[in-house]
Every structure is written in structure tokens, then in C-alpha cells.
Amino acid sequence: MKQDDQIPYKIYLRENEMPAAWYNVRADMKQKPAPLLNPATHQPMGKEDLSAVFCEELVDQELNETDAYIEIPQEIRNFYKMYRPSPLVRAYCLEEKLQTPAKIYYKFEGNNTSGSHKLNSAIAQAYYAKKQGLKGVTTETGAGQWGTALSMACSYFDLDCKVYMVKVSYEQKPFRREVMRTYGASVTPSPSETTAVGQRILKEHPGTSGSLGCAISEAVEAATSNEGYRYVLGSVLNQVLLHQSIIGLETKRAMDKYNITPDIIIGCAGGGSNLGGLIAPFMGEKLRGEKDYRFIAVEPASCPSFTRGKFAYDFCDTGNICPLAKMYTLGSSFIPSANHAGGLRFHGMSSTLSQLYHDGLMEARAVEQTAVFEAAEQFARIEGILPAPESSHAIRAAIDEAMRCKETGEEKTILFGLTGTGYFDMVAYEKFHNGEMSDYLPTDAELQAGFDALPKFPGCEG
Amino acid sequence: MKQDDQIPYKIYLRENEMPAAWYNVRADMKQKPAPLLNPATHQPMGKEDLSAVFCEELVDQELNETDAYIEIPQEIRNFYKMYRPSPLVRAYCLEEKLQTPAKIYYKFEGNNTSGSHKLNSAIAQAYYAKKQGLKGVTTETGAGQWGTALSMACSYFDLDCKVYMVKVSYEQKPFRREVMRTYGASVTPSPSETTAVGQRILKEHPGTSGSLGCAISEAVEAATSNEGYRYVLGSVLNQVLLHQSIIGLETKRAMDKYNITPDIIIGCAGGGSNLGGLIAPFMGEKLRGEKDYRFIAVEPASCPSFTRGKFAYDFCDTGNICPLAKMYTLGSSFIPSANHAGGLRFHGMSSTLSQLYHDGLMEARAVEQTAVFEAAEQFARIEGILPAPESSHAIRAAIDEAMRCKETGEEKTILFGLTGTGYFDMVAYEKFHNGEMSDYLPTDAELQAGFDALPKFPGCEG
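^ inputs. structure came back:
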């Protein structure tokens, strides 16, 4: 293994180099993301509207389009110390194995018990809930990473935590449930009989294995119908991207320290929290015309919101009780086919990222899951880390780009986000090992059914 | 959270501060550990004897009682860079929660895919096997951490890896098996029909859930009956303690850098690899009369080799085909009761640690498993990390010592080894959450049965 003498294998920032403020990319966007709309009136939601569902300071962050930097409260920075800085790793072994002239770096967010970057926003949201004097929070979880992260954060601040877990994940990942219980959370498989919207969905679709959109509906109802509770969401929202900017800020500071400039920045995209956080400060430079970068969002071919979705207002949830967001969407009724493993199963995409993509500031690419697991296993064997299926979408694209460099001889610097570990995804790995994993591309007719169900009102595709 | 300005929350050594040689504590021991004996002749085994089972350079390390430092080959140091240095963490949050004047540090070895410190020795043993031109290696695994670690190491050096996994773990931990398969290993539940010794044990004890000692017998037979294979062991042996000294060397360098001196050093003890590695350089100072430390080995009350075992020559395996080691042992037929969760289930203990304990240089303590899981859950909620059951034995003792400081007002500095994470132990956590976990102390009669079966020959209790 050849190592550049000047660049450590892993770069850890020192405590005094850690970012003290989050970066709010919206402040530098000329074309701002469209506002959330009230589902009944189709009017932009203000602070009062949103405060029924979300914590007040988080609503401020959600609506803030002007401040480029927002200070990270000391209590959150204290918690960050438990598992941050995360390492920026030079993938020397992978480069050698691929025989590519490309230089590959990854920011690894999996070294914490939640197993992913989700903890970055969970602790912020729990902090503001505690500060507001709430009893607890409700949320949904798919693959279980967000629910675990929120359980940890709530345990730290002694808040109650109610998690609605997509039924198929609840059944496939009983151990995730036990991790959440270790941190004192209550976990309910969704759809459930515990909410009106859950009862309705069960009646309409008996035997459904659930979806993120459906679990969101239940969690929102549980928050708004219980005194002293608010709803928190692990992705999609502006506030979440803001908190996740810690990933990009650390990465950029580490790279600047060693005079490294990435040419291509790659992230997997479900709701967009990791991708949005990773690219934030780099996108800021691009928006301000200071530097140029290629950004690539990688999504599952079985849930292709960027690459095959519509840019329109849509509900964030299946039950249609949430605010409307302008985003790339497959329709709130869209559910990925049953053979899709892991997360990245949300029907929509962050409004901020959707606007950036719409404006041609980033690219998107869909990859099929057997190719993703091939990349995952290759990466595990070469770089040691067993990646989450979600993260492996970014690995797939990074390897593909590195192999392109091999063809062209270009010495590009590739940065990708390795969002988490796959320790709770061994059922999917087992299918892959046994040759039982398959790919699925939704048909045009299936997608059209989702588009037909999009809400229609003046300006909905505005 | 109050933080000492001078001491980071987590201390990571820089690349140029990393140890370049392992420390061999035997060089500083006046009373050397007793040699391995040939089970047939009861004579000390030399290089030739041992080379039938182990790789040659590892045999040299096994027998080396004179060199205090042995250089770490560059290839191993390269691999170490993937997951080392491991952080030395100041448990500020735990201290605050306990309201103790004690200062608590832990060396966390769980941030790698094997989930534990076992990778430190696995990569060394795989390296020497590769260097010797072998096709592959065989081994046993209990909780699965060692097997996973060895699979990763063999994958890195492109070696075949045959793992015999204790049947009860194989069944309770199917996901561990899939991790090993991800790294290309073959995994067989033990006892199995694939070896003569496995067949014999199955005949004598039909329906047995297996034991480490039994899996060792099978792995040794598989190594010696297949051309181009050798056997590797994840604990107990001198060579393993040597490799694991990287834990203690990193810890000591990090502490020295910030002028921290531990008063008490605590580690969990199964075969002794983590404890031996953690304490090595500190014990060296004690042996050389330079400094004094209290060392505490913590073992399960259900498998109490130090606290209730005999210091005598015994077989390392159930099938009695392995060399005899002088150690604290419960007898090679001893199997912990079925309600015992997790690892630390070996009937014996490292000869080196046994000698040190026998000579009064360290203490030992047995703890019951419900108390261990209470400490585990408390630690998870306060420090964020979900610990392995094994590691939680050390947490239990560290908390107990910190609470003693609270009573006495002493500001002691406590260091403990946090060997790994519990992501694959959620069945045990679930039992704990559901109130279904119990404790078991072996009766004197049960222990006596094990002692009665100890090999008897002149000098066996030396």
C-alpha cells in the first residue's frame, strides 16, 4: 500500500478545529426551495402553523433562508464529542485494488451506536424539544437507523421517545427494536391500531407491510394528539439538512487542512439528509461562484425519485395529513417493491436538494441493488468496513467513477459519504450470498399511478 | 458536562505516535509462565512440536521469553491504520452521572467490523500464515468476534478461513455467520460430523450445544489433517497477548502524553487476550519496580476460572488433543450453564496472566450477569456506546470502583478496557429487557467434577 507521506490514512480534526456553527445552504441559493404549504389551504405555512407539529426553534431553522451560519449550542457540541469528529478516510486499499489513478476519500459516519449519520440531527432535535420543556417526541423509522439515533438522543436528555417503525423492518430487524428499547424508547410496528390514520390504512390495505409515508402519518398524529409531544423527522426537512451540514463542514475543514480539493462529491439519497449535509459547504462555494464541483446523488433504481420522479408539490406522508412540500416525488402512495432491501425508500426528496437538482447544480443517478451489494461486499473485503445497504449506493457510484478514471487516466479526487454500517442488515446480505437478491425497476405505468395521485391545485408544479 | 481543558474528550494518537513494536511482558517476568507440554509425553514443547499446529514465526513468538520488544511488520501496521489508533475516551458523562470524584477512562476497541479487539491478533496471525505460504487457517469462535476478525484478516491477505463456531452461538447469532461469509469464510457449527473428534463428542454428548474447548479440538484436527493449513487461536496464547499489547501501548502513550497515571486498570477476562494486552506495558513497569498499579481481572461468576479455578496443567480443548498449558482452569470438560450469555466461556486462562495472578501481581473478581447487563444498559444510555456483554464485565467493575471512590472521596484514576460492541448480542439484551435473564453460580460439586478430570502426572500442579 502506497501512502502519501503528507496525508494521514484517516484524518481526525482536533477538538479546537471542530465546527462551532452549522451552515445553511439556503442562504446562498438564488432560487430558494419552495415553502411548505398547508395541505388544506395550499398557503405557505408560517411559524404558527408549523409549531403545532414541530418544536419552535426547529421551526425557526426550517424557515430561515437568510443566515448562512447558525451556532451549534454547547450542549449539542458536548454530545457530538461522544462520537465526532468522524474520520475522513483515504481509501488507499480500494485505490490499489482498483488500480485507478483516482484518489478516493470517504467520510465515515458509522462509528456510533445508531450506526449512521442520523445521530447528528437526532441530538439537535432532542435538545430543542428538551429546551422547550416537552415531555417527549414521536417519529417514524424505516431501516431503523433514525429511530435508534433518536432513542439515544432522547435517553441523553431524558425525553420520552415513541417510534413508529415500518412493519417490514420491524419484523426483519427485531434487533434494532431491542437497541431502541435499550435506550428506553417504545417501538410500534406501523401501520398500527394505535392511531386513526393507522386504522384507516389497515382497513384500506389489510396485510400491508407498511411504508415510511404511512409511519410518518401515524407519528404526526401521535404528536399532535398527545399533550407535550412534538413530531421529529430524520430527513427531508431543511432543519435536518442544516444539522447534517456538520458532515460537510468537518470534511471540508479536514480537506482544506491538507490542501485536498475534491472534483466529484457523491452521496446516497433517500430523503437527502446525508447528501445535503455532505455537500452543503462545497455547494455554498459553487453557489457563490468561488469553486466548481460535480455533485452526484445516488438513489435506488427501485425508488427513483430524482431520476424518474416529478418536481411538484406533494404530501410527505401516505395519510396526507402532513404539510405539502415541493420536491421530486413518485407520489405519496408509492411503495418500493418488496424485494428492495434497506432504506432509501421514501417517495420524495428534500426540497432544498430538489431545487438544486432542478437548477442543474447537481446530478443524479439510479443504481440497481445487486450491483450495490456487489460494491458493498467488495468494499467490506478491501476497506474492512461492512457498509449499510444505503451507504453502498454511494460506494457503487464512487467505484464506477474511479473505474472511469482508470479508462481515461484522469487523477480525479473523489469524495463520498459512507453513511453507516450494515450490522443490522445481515438478512439482506444473506439473500445476496445465497443468490436470492433481485432487482426491480418500477414500470412507467406504476410510476404514472403515483403521479396521477399527486395533489392538483394552481401552482402545484409552479 | 465539565471537561478538563487540558484533556480531550477522546484521545487519538497521531500516525507518527503509533507503536512500532509489540511489548512482550514475559521478558520482564522473573517467574516465567510455564511452558506448553506435549499431551502424550508431558515434556515441554519446542519449535518442532509446535510447528505442526502453528505458523513458524508465531511459534517463535510463543516461545520468546527474552525480547521485550518485537517489531510489528509494516504490512500489519498498514492494516492497523484501517481501524487504529482506537480512541482513549474520558468518561466525563459517566463520571457526572455517578457523581464520583474518580476519573474514568476507557480504551474502546469496538470501532471495527469485527466489533472487538480480536482483529489486532487476527491480522498478525493471518500475516504470518501468508508469509509462510500457507493456503489457509482454521479456528474456533464462540461469541463470533474472533471468527469475524479472522475472516476479515484472511480476506485482506487472500487466505482460506475455516471457522468452527460453538453451536449455541451459531444458532443464536446467524448474523455473525453472514458477516463471516461476507468476508469469504466457511463456518461450521461445532461439534460437527466433519471431524473425528466432533463425531466422538456428538456420540458421547448427543444434543450438546457445544463449547469453545470442543470447537478448538475440531479446528486443530482440521488444521493438522489438511495440507497447507495451520491452526490459529484468538486468546490464551502468549503470541496473542503479544499482539494485543498494541492496546496497552497505545493507551500508555496517550496517557503519558497528557500526564495521566491510572491507579486501577480493569479488564474483562475470558482467555485473557484483552486484559493481557491492555495491562502489558503497565505491568512491565510494575515488574521492573518503576511504578505500581492495581490490576483487576473481571470474569463471569458462571465461568470463574481465576476466582474458583485451580492453577494446574490442563488441556486447552475438550477433545484433549491440544498441548497442555499451566493455567487457572475449571477443567477442560467444564461448560458454563446454558443461561450464560455472550463470551468469556473458556474453561482456562492465559498462562502468562495465570502466573502473574498466582504471584500476587494482579487481582481477580467474578460478577453475575444480571449485574453486568445493568451496567451495560446504564453505560449505553450515558456514554452512547452499546457494549458487548464481555466488555460489560469491565464496566461493572469500573462503576463499582468509581462508587467506592464516591464513598471514600478518593480521586482515583480508573482505566478500563471496553473491548467491543454488542450489536450481535441483542438476543441477550432482549432477555434482559424482558426480565428473563438469570444468574448462575456453579456448585462446588460441579467444579469438583472438573477438577477431578484434570490430567494427573508428576509436576502437573508444579
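The domain at 40-70+117-231 of chain A is CATH 3.40.50.1100 (Rossmann fold). Chain A has a mean pLDDT of 95.
thumbs up if we can close this ticket
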